[in-house]
Fold:
Amino acid sequence: MRHKVDGRLFGRPANQRKALLRGIVTALFDQQRIETTVPKAKEAKRIAERMITFGIKGDLHSKRQVLSYVTDRTAASKLFNDIAPRFQGRNGGYLRLVQTRQRLKDSAPMAILEFIDYETVKQAKGKAAKEEKAEKKKPDKKAAKKESKA
Structure:
């Protein structure tokens, strides 16, 4: 019986399993949304939610805890500067797991692991990018008058 035995083993030694999950969590913080198999997504979700809780605390000990697990410093800084402030008043449940399809090669069940506010953040970034393009395309009237006079 497997009483009080927690976590999935993925048929790998401990060091490979730890490296796999560290890579998945780092990619999640960097990309905001990833697609992987369902069991890997469930394990990564447990770890990532704990890291986000550390990010909300934001003290020195929390930063050291996150940096000991996340492999990329830019992903860790993105966690503390961008991701954690979005969930400041929330008590858990930061990630969503959406089962999508069966992988063609081995029929493994696939899932998307994303932040619960991924769509709103994506729309806000899209609107900001459109506004930047509109500002760049619109010629400056004062500069155009100076060029025509010269």
